[in-house]
């Protein structure tokens, strides 16, 4: 009876997969439609797919593009895995390796890919595939390792332990997010590089992070592929944040002409006015959620006004920004609805700013969008897509980081009352206090880089195309760089140049363009709290954190102001 039930389950999965493939082709969507891939054979643990090359599959030499063959292999091997794993389970590709044997002309009749499962376990599955031409000659051979997971939880929760000891997955486990620092310390002491199932090594030590940030061997272009391989297209033009020289040099130079230090300094009176209004409301309410009452409205209002977005549009901008910020995380940590929200937010962002930019080009005003649209140097100007990408980048990065800085910083003051008392006694420590907040509980917790060529870090050799995730949250607590790093000390950056720079705003050519604005907003807020002599008390022991690895921030912080 058990055997019959198992056979029924497998048969149902085979039928479901066949129906899904057929539906995609009939509906004109998916791989089957775009590349002409067809399913020929579907058995438990084995599939056969064919591809008739078309002009759309050509590379510059008019042979079949390697990416098309890789897609054929990935499709065949992945579908074979799906037929062999437990009922109710899903899979996602962790690693795909392809060896190309011979080139294939577009005139070739048909390519055939046969894939077979090598191992199907509860947590991982492996398969191999062979692509042959119409004459039966081997074109390419591939292998894949897939992560098997439950559809009700993020895939990484089912991941196997990586080869080196420590807490590689702890960084991705939400239960550790309130205080990840003990695990960072353990990782730094045991190994400078922590392997993960997310195609990257975590870099935990300050010196190694600095070395990578200052080394042009490591690229910021295409690094999104590390965390978002093969995902649905997010319809956003590429920002200069994800470019390398010379494209980065050109775009950042043009943007900097509009987003100048003078522009930031002119914002001080408006920031001071807004801070007073927000603190007035907080004092009147007595008990508030700091995130909704201060952390969000302060930076969002300032950056939106700077860009020229009307006040009535601010709620939409916040919603879209939050969805995109959540989408910075590895796709395997995102639920399907979060990936969908990211895609939808990108579409709405693009439509909104495209309309606003075109209106400003027709009728310029005294705002940053007009400045970006009109900026020019030696005949070079920003295209519409470049202005669009810059607007989205400035809005998302320009306020999400500050939201987390406000929440994390106020919590640090509350949990270290002696430091808040010191700040009240010496308000001029507001600037150094902001720097310590940025170091102590970094609102930008992680960034990624991709190796251009073979290179070595901490004794490990990385091949071209390998990726790393620089764990700023760990580097900023590295005792090799910061004495007594787990102590929150607002005098650490006061009157001395010997203290190492924290990495929260990165280093080198990708140093955060909006860092002066984030510092200005937080310093003015601290000075206003101190000027009024307000006491701050947590009214709940529970401090939930946002589901985000790249941007570390608090979801809710209930505080009584008196």
UniProtKB/TrEMBL annotation:
Its cofactor is heme. Residues 63-140 form the Thioesterase domain. GO terms for molecular function: acyl-CoA hydrolase activity; heme binding; iron ion binding; monooxygenase activity; oxidoreductase activity, acting on paired donors, with incorporation or reduction of molecular oxygen. The keyword Heme applies. CDD domains: CYP164-like, PaaI_thioesterase. Keywords: Heme, Hydrolase, Iron, Metal-binding, Monooxygenase, Oxidoreductase. PANTHER family: CYTOCHROME P450 YJIB-RELATED, P450, PUTATIVE (EUROFUNG)-RELATED. Belongs to the cytochrome P450 family. This is Thioesterase domain-containing protein.
